[in-house]
Amino acid sequence: MFTVPAIGQTGTLSHATTAGRGIMKVDGKHYRSIWRDPQSGQVRIIDQRWLPHEFRVVTLDSLDLFATAIRDMWVRGAPLIGATAAYGMAVRVGENPSDKALERARATLLDTRPTAVNLRWALDRVTKRLLPLPTRERARAAMRLAESIAEEDIEINRRIGRHGLDVIRTIAMNKPDGEPVRLLTHCNAGWIATVDWGTATSPMYHAHDAGIPIHVWVDETRPRNQGALTSWELGCHGIGHSYIVDNAGGHLMQHGLVDMVITGTDRTTANGDVCNKIGTYLKALAAHDNAIPFYVALPSPTIDWTVDDGVRNIPIEQRASSETTHVTGRTPDGSIRAVQVSPDGTEGSNPAFDVTPGRLITGLITERGVCEASGTGLAGLFPEFASA
Ligand code: MRU
After folding, report:
1. Which atom of ligand 1 is nearest to the CA of 78?
2. CB-based contacts of 198: which residues, under 8 Å, 6+ apart?
3. Residue 234: which pLDDT band, with cuts at 50, 70 and 90?
4. What is the rounded distance in angstroms from the CA atom of residue 290 to the CA atom of residue 4?
5. What does the alpha-carbon distance between residue 202 and residue 298 come to, in Å, rounded to a whole number?
6. The pLDDT of residue 10
């Protein structure tokens, strides 16, 4: 049976026990967002810069390329950033297994993006596993660990989906027969933000496949419009959805058009504060004002047990001003272009994440069940980490 390994421990999964549990299907073909090509052994990713307009796969074969892919968001989403970093370490250790190379690789990858704690979690796990080993054993151990981290991510997200399904089912039971449960989500906490299933989207896929009618309001999520990725995923799976501007959520909630909000998280503190894509906090405030349940899908590697106060202690990534002053999309001739939306010379300001205090959150949906967004709630589900 699958056991979710404790943070910092070596994974316990083998491919034989876990293969085929994914949900992602593009044009009828199963994918993961990162995988090892069985013939060449090379690491491949779905290059998210082109989605939803073009589906492109690229090979990452050097530490620099892995770092670029994370920093420039060819891959993105907290769990996928962690898994990619683990593969990046494995590729580098395959070239040079020395302590020095290992530590340099860790520092290079850690420097790519500051907010999603899965990055540090994965790098610490790899380093802790490899350093005690003789150098000749490191390359193989590193690749096996990267594969385990990817496998575990899939299983964690599948379990989040099962628990989230129970929440959605309860809401569905209180609605007139046949009326869809209307969910609102922010950013992309979907297949391609993880290795498979997604976190916030996993309950949606589970509900849809269980025959519960749902409709998803998808926030566009300026400035990078990750909502377009969510819309693409939901469309691939046949789930009804509407792409809405970020400012529409409060209005929809006031008019009784939202039954539940569910988002992902990039870092959740030990006392249940949730750091997620910029704008999440405003949705939580609006949900609170309208008594609408606000849930966060939380895989355990996204919990930062070292931090209590999210607003004060979580580093918030500041991204390029050009992401706010320009918008990228497809032009009528089919090419993908950025166009300027602000006046010449206007400077943008671009904090990429915000923190929603636990008091605004109805529940955290983890792989071990749903808990209150508080220290007590998290300690109840993860006593081994809370007490460490
Ligand atoms: O800047 P991004 O696109 O990496 O931000 C992604 C998010 O904020 C997601 O909601 C979060 O990582 C959870 S992904 C399962």
Report:
1. 12
2. 157, 188, 189, 190, 191, 192, 205, 233, 264, 297
3. very high
4. 36
5. 11
6. 29
* Catalytic residue selected from 266, 273, 304, 354: 266
| Other CB atoms within 10 A of residue 246 CB | 17
pLDDT at 167: 98
CB of 334 closer than 8 Å to CB of 150 = no
Amino acid at 228: A
Q: Residue 213 and residue 233: Cα distance in Å, rounded? A: 17
Strand intervals (E) in the chain: 25-26, 29-30, 34-36, 43-46, 57-60, 181-185, 214-219, 241-244, 260-263, 267-269, 274-277, 294-297, 303-304, 326-330, 336-340, 353-356, 363-366, 369-371
236's CB contacts (< 8 A; 6+ apart) are 24, 25, 26
Distance CA 149, CA 195 (A): 9
**Average pLDDT value for residue range 324-350:** 96
Q: Is the CB of 182 under 6 A from ligand 1?
A: no
Nearest-atom index, ligand 1, CA of 116: 12
- Residues 96-120 have pLDDT tens digits of 999 999 999 999 999 999 999 999 9
**DSSP-assigned states of every residue in 162-200:** HHHHHHHHHHHHTS-TTPPEEEEE-S--SGGGSSSS-SS
65 Cβ partners below 8 Å, 6+ apart?
A: none
Say whether pTM exceeds 0.70. Answer: yes
266 catalytically annotated:
yes
Burial 217-233 (b: 16+ CB within 10 A, else e): bbbbbbbbbbbbbbbbb
Share the mean pLDDT of the chain.
Answer: 94
Q: Is the CB of 77 under 6 A from ligand 1?
A: yes
Q: What angle do CA 294, 312, 275 make, to 5 degrees?
A: 30
* pLDDT 10s digits, 191-213: 999 999 999 999 999 999 999 99
Express each pLDDT in 278-295 by its tens digit.
Answer: 999 999 999 999 999 999
